[in-house]
From TrEMBL, chains A, B:
<keyword id="KW-0328">Glycosyltransferase</keyword>
<dbReference type="InterPro" id="IPR023296">
    <property type="entry name" value="Glyco_hydro_beta-prop_sf"/>
</dbReference>
<dbReference type="GO" id="GO:0016757">
    <property type="term" value="F:glycosyltransferase activity"/>
</dbReference>
<protein>
    <submittedName>
        <fullName>Beta-1,4-mannooligosaccharide/beta-1, 4-mannosyl-N-acetylglucosamine phosphorylase</fullName>
        <ecNumber>2.4.1.319</ecNumber>
        <ecNumber>2.4.1.320</ecNumber>
    </submittedName>
</protein>
<keyword id="KW-0808">Transferase</keyword>
<dbReference type="Pfam" id="PF04041">
    <property type="entry name" value="Glyco_hydro_130"/>
</dbReference>
<comment type="similarity">
    <text>Belongs to the glycosyl hydrolase 130 family.</text>
</comment>
<dbReference type="InterPro" id="IPR007184">
    <property type="entry name" value="Mannoside_phosphorylase"/>
</dbReference>
């Protein structure tokens, strides 16, 4: 085991006002829950039954969220929400009005599992959209008022699109998880690059499901935007196992090479969070923790993780860059073709 | 019904030496079989049990084929073959040796259902390859001696990649059929564009399975490279129906808009060839006709279609541009979202 604790740090901006609680005394795991979870409960706004699997970013001194809002007719759409502290949220009653590049309304038939990633001065929303089946939808905004849809990056069927927060070798990079159009019983994570956010190529395999443990045996998928650290891109992701009564979603941690993110440097063999609390075990879909966003502070190394719980609630969990990166290094397991590099 | 017979013609080069037989007296359908089918029979060369679903192009006064060769260990690879008349073939015993852009050997784990399309002075081979599951493989050659692999255009899972034989609006265009990694029980045809054959985007839906008839109810997929005609891009494709004893593959015909090929102009409601003969009904996979290539002569409007039969043989069938285009116009049916244009 390598002890890198003294030099592990986040490369990025300070965010001293992110939500934070210290690790409880005697708690032995690398990720700990907010004491007052869930932070978004059932029926959070008129017409919305549940909010979960959602994205949060800092914006002009407060926080804005793009939320997967399961409307009371059972179809998911994306709603904005605002918060001063990242914990107490005002959710908008109307869904986001996406427009096309001519400014005409261009609403997705449905929209779920959003991620929001800032690259330079633009915020990109990535979600699962209907493109003759489940596919990755893509839009940009600079002000959280006008959301302009961009070309769908990939053919169907695909989910869990995650953009990197900066260009690498002058190219945009997006993770995704090719799937089928249903409750996909398989899935690995790939990365693709683009010079212009319109055309994508140089697709590479990043991570395989599987490993010695069974918690990620069925499929895996990207989570929040990767966090740049001194050891590489830290990414939380979801790993899924199967049981006689359905799937169970846990959270994993992986560190990808900074310059060549298709290369896995370290990948924790264990989950770092798994359904245990009532709001994770019980709900519309039992036994789901599904991370979609983080807030993180380069000054202190603190990380707040936003995750969907049981397809019903939003939970927050905490860690520090030192703790989670060291844990991932110490519990590294090479899985499947994770170490393959360069070739298609 | 429109009578366009007087002005329907192929836009392209003359190929007076293509294989040809006139339509049999009294035959009522728009596509007729070569009288001495199958033109490639079982065990065509040492180590190869069956050849089918293969591509043929004219090259330096004769014909060259890139053949799906099912080796005697049951795994498909691509073999070259040569012919003076397009009917009698010398198949090479060794598979094609693909190299990467540095010239190092880079063989696919398996390779099947090739198409070969010339764009300007380069021949592109497109096939189904193993990229952590079924995906579209891509290579180029100028001399049929060195085959250099290009970037896989799309993420898995996908099959039936078909390049257009010229750029449209200065972009390369490729049809494909997103799928799963097995015996996919669904599938529509999409088109994607590329400025550089590396990055692909602006994905559009082209054709849906379905329609009033049942012969293409399960899935469809592109066939030979589209033929440019005065009425639009003529494309033969495969349509699949399901039975209690498995799938049945027939051949359909469609005409796509010349400038915007995501738009279907005419699509025949009926198959234009369906398994009837012993070599189509019987074999490794019963009841398959699967077109992958055409030869066509702009001078006479003659078209020779190469199709796989029962995953065992290569068959040839004939039509003329006048006959098949008129048939497709006369039997037009709008299916599903075929007429959708422009939007994702």
């Amino acid at each position: 085991m390598t002890n890198l604790t003294q030099r592990i740090h986040i490369i990025g901006e300070a965010l001293p006002n992110l939500p934070w609680q210290n690790k409880p005394e005697g708690y032995e795991f690398p990720v700990w829950r907010h004491s007052d979870n869930p932070v978004i409960k059932r029926n959070p706004v008129k017409g919305v039954a549940r909010i979960f699997n959602s994205a949060v970013v800092p914006y002009e001194g407060r926080f804005v969220g793009v939320f997967r809002a399961e409307t009371t007719n059972g179809r998911p759409h994306l709603h904005l929400g605002w918060s001063e502290d990242g914990l107490s949220w005002q959710i908008e009653e109307e869904r986001i009005n996406f427009v096309d590049e001519q400014g005409e309304s261009f609403q997705p038939n449905y929209a779920y599992d959003p991620r929001v990633v800032r690259v330079e001065d633009t915020y990109y929303v990535i979600w699962c959209t209907d493109f003759y089946g489940a596919a990755i939808g893509f839009a940009s905004t600079k002000d959280f008022q006008t959301f302009t849809r961009l070309e769908n990056p990939f053919l169907p069927f695909n989910r869990n699109g995650v953009l990197f927060p900066r260009k690498i070798n002058d190219k945009f990079l997006m993770l995704s998880r090719p799937s089928d159009s249903g409750h996909t019983p398989f899935g690995d994570v790939f990365v693709s690059e683009s010079p212009d956010l319109v055309h994508w190529g140089k697709h590479r395999h990043v991570m395989a499901k599987g490993g010695q443990g069974w918690w990620q045996a069925v499929k895996i998928g990207g989570g929040p935007a990767p966090i740049e650290t001194s050891e590489g891109w830290l990414m939380f992701y979801h790993g899924v196992t199967g049981t006689c009564n359905g799937l169970v979603y846990s959270m994993g941690a992986v560190i990808l090479d900074r310059d060549e993110p298709s290369r896995v440097k370290y990948r924790a063999s264990t989950f770092v969070l798994t359904p245990e609390e009532w709001y994770e075990e019980r709900g519309f879909v039992a036994n789901v923790v599904f991370p979609c966003a983080t807030l993180h502070d380069a000054g202190t190394g603190r990380i707040a993780i936003y995750y969907g719980a049981a397809d019903t609630y939003v939970g927050v969990a905490y860690t520090t860059v030192e703790e989670i990166v060291q844990y991932t290094i110490d519990h590294h397991e090479e899985i499947g073709d994770d170490s393959t590099i360069g070739k298609m």
